[in-house]
Amino acid sequence: MKFSKRIPLAIKQLKDSPIKTAAATAGICFSNVLVFFQLGLLESIYQSQSRPYSLLDGEIVIVSSRFKRLSQSPTISISDIMRAKGVEGVAKVSTLSIELGTVLIKSEGMTTNAQIYGIDPLNSALDTEKIGLDLKLVDLYERAAIDTLSRPSYVRDAKREMILKNSYRTNLIDKRILINSTAKIGSTFASDMSLVMSQNNLLHYYPKRNQHITNLGVVKLSKNYTKERVKKVLSEKLFPNGGTISAMLIEEISKTEMNYWSKNTALTFIFGLGVIVGFVVSGIILYQILYSDVISHLPEYATLLALGYTNIFVIKIVFTQALMLTLMSFPFSILISMGLYSIMMSASNLLIYMTIGRAIIVASLSIGTSMISCYIATNKLRKVDPSTLY
Amino acid sequence: MQANNPIKIKELTYRYCKEDPHSQVLNSIELEVSKGELIILTGASGSGKTTLLTLIGGLRTGAEGYLEILGKNIVSANRRELVELRKQIGFIFQSHNLLPYLTAQENIRVGLEVHEKWRRKDLNKIEEKCFELLELLELSHRANFKPKDLSIGQKQRISIARAIANTPEIILADEPTASLDKDSARIVIGLLKEFADTYQCSVIIITHDNKILDYADRIIKLENGLIT
Predict the structure, then answer these.
(1) Helical segments of B88-181, H only
(2) What's the gap between Cα A217 and its chain centre?
(3) Phi–psi pair at A179, nearest 5 degrees
(4) Residues A7, B110: C-beta atoms closer than 8 Å
(5) β partners of residue B82
(6) Does A390 touch chain B (CB under 8 A)?
(7) Most B CBs within 10 Å: which of A5, A303, A305, A383, as the mutation test of the B interface?
(8) Residues A14, A20: Cα–Cα separation, whole Å
(9) Whose C-alpha in A114, A205, A378, B3 is 20 to 30 A from the C-alpha of B147?
(10) How many CA atoms lie within 13 A of B189 on its CB side?
C-alpha cells in the first residue's frame, strides 16, 4: 500500500522553470565560491607561514623569549642551545640560522628578497627526507639549494640551468652563488624565494654575523619520551620563565607565528570582509530570485489559500525552494572551488586545499543566509489573503 | 431564517475603504440559501456580485452585519476559522486558477490533500478519486496534461473537479462558463445542478449567460449593492 504524501509543490515549481532554477543555483554557487576562495586563501596564507616549522627535524624548538616570527627571529647563543643535549630524552640538538638577502633573477634582470636558511650539514635542523635536500651538495663552498615552492618563474630558470650546466649561477648580496640542488620548503610573507645553505656558507655571505649565534635550536627526542615532558624539563631546568630563551613545542611556535600575522596585518580583516561580502551577495541574489518568484506565483499561492491551505503552508513552499536551491548549488561550489584552489596552487605554490571544516562552515552560513533572505522575501505571503485574486 | 440553511445573510454591508462611504459595494444584503438550492447571481459589472461571493466563501473580510456560513457567523471570524471554512467550500474561479506546474490529476489532488482525511488515505485511493472525477467530466484522457496543454473549457472542468472533489456543502462559482461554448456551458452547469441535487449542496453561480438561467432554482439580481 502506497501512503499518500503531499504533492511536493516546491520541487514541482522548480522543475517547471529549469532555466530559472539553473540561474538561481548558479548565482548561489558563485557567491559560495567567492566565500570558499576567501577562506581558503586566508587559511593557506596563514598556514604557509607556519609550514617551515613542520619541516624541522625535531619536536621542540628553542628560541629567544622575544620571538614573534621566523623571518625576524632574534638570535641566541649556540652554546645555550646545546645545553639541551644534557637533558634526558633528548636525542639530537641542531641549529637553524635565518637571514634575508637579495638574489639576482637573471631572466628578469631584477633582484628579489629571499629567505636564507643556514644549517649544519652534519647535524641538519631540517628534515632532509621531508624536504628532499642533498646535504652533500649543500656542503660545498658558495653552493645552495633552491626551494622549489618559491615563485615558479624563479624556480623554472634555476632548474633549466641546473639541467644544462649543473648549477644556476647568480648573485646573493652582490656575491657569486651557485644553486646546485633543490629542496621543498614553501613561500612565506617575508619572501618569494628561499635558499638552503650550510652554516659556513651563510657566514661567508653575512660576514658580520657572529659564528657563535643562531636563530633557532631544534630538539629531537629519543624514543619513548613525550615532547610535553621533555619540554617541561627544558623549561624548568634550562630555560625558565622570565629568561631570555624559551623552549616551545612545534605546535606552540606555529601558533605564535600565525597569531603574529593575524594581529599585525590586516589580512583577517580584509579576507573576513570578503567573506561577509560573499554572503551578502548570496543573500541579495537569493532574495531577488525568491521575491520575484513569490510575486510571479502570487495568484497560485492565493488559490491555495482559497482552497483552505494556510499562509504557513504557502510560506513553507518558498522556504523549501530556497533550501533546495542552496543545497543543489553546494556540490558545484565545492567542485569549482577545488578547481580554483588547484589553479592557485600551481600559480603561486601556496598550499591551498578544501577541508571538511571549511565546507561545513560555508554550508551552514549559506543555509543561514538563504533562510534569512527567504524570511524577508516571504513577508508579502504572511499578509496575503485570497482576495488578492480579485 | 431556517435553522439548517447553510447560508444566512442579514444586513450585510461592505465597503472597500471604511473611511470612504462612496466605496460601499454591498448595502444591507439579506439572503438565505437552502441546502440543494442552485442560485444564479446576476447584475451589471460593479454591482457587488463577486464581492458578495468572496465574502460568503471567506476569501475576504471586513464586512459588517450578519453572515452565517455553515452555522457560524464569519463576520468576526479569525484567520484560523476562515481557513477551516474555506476547506468546506468549493470555489470555482473565473480564470480557473489551476497550478500551471501540476497535471490535471495533480490539480484535483491538491484540492483533496488540504483535508486531513484524504492525507491519511493511501495514494491509490486518492488517485482513484481523481480519476473518477476526471471520467465524470470526460477528461480522463487528459489526466497527465498540464494546464498549458489543455483548452480553456478543459481547464474550467478541471477547476470544477477540484472544487467538488471533497463533496463540499457549498459551491461558489464566479462566471464558470465565461470562456465556454454553449454546449460546454450547459454540461458544466448541468453537472453543478446534478451535484446540488445529489449531495444537497448549495450552489451560487455568478453569470451573465442567459442560456443557463433555466437551471437555477432562484435568480438574484444585484444592483448597486442591493438585491432587487
Answers:
(1) 104-113, 116-119, 123-136, 152-164
(2) 26
(3) -90, 115
(4) yes
(5) none
(6) yes
(7) A303
(8) 8
(9) A378
(10) 28
Positions of E strands within chain B:
7-15, 24-33, 38-43, 64-69, 72-73, 89-92, 170-174, 202-206, 218-223, 226-227
Running along chain B, 228 residues long, what does each successive block of 10 average in pLDDT?
A: 82 84 83 94 89 92 92 91 93 89 96 90 89 91 95 90 93 89 86 92 92 90 86
DSSP run (H or E) holding B54: helix B49-56
Q: What is the Cα–Cα distance from B195 to B201, expressed in whole angstroms? A: 7
pTM of the model: 0.79
B118·A2 Cβ contact <8 A = no
Tell me which residue has cell 471586513. B62
* Contacts for B106 with CB less than 8 Å, ≥ 6 apart: A7, A12, B99
Read off the pLDDT of residues A102-161 as tens digits, 9 standing for 90 and up: 999 888 888 998 999 999 999 999 999 999 999 999 999 999 999 998 888 888 888 998
Q: Which residues of B touch A386 (CB under 8 A)?
A: 54, 57, 59-60, 86
Sign of CA dihedral B195, B200, B205, B211: positive
In chain A, residues with a C-beta closer than 8 Å to the C-beta of B115 are 308
CA distances from B206 to A388, B62, B200 (A): 19, 21, 19
Q: How far apart are CA B168 and CA B190, in angstroms?
A: 17
Return the amino acid letter for A63: V
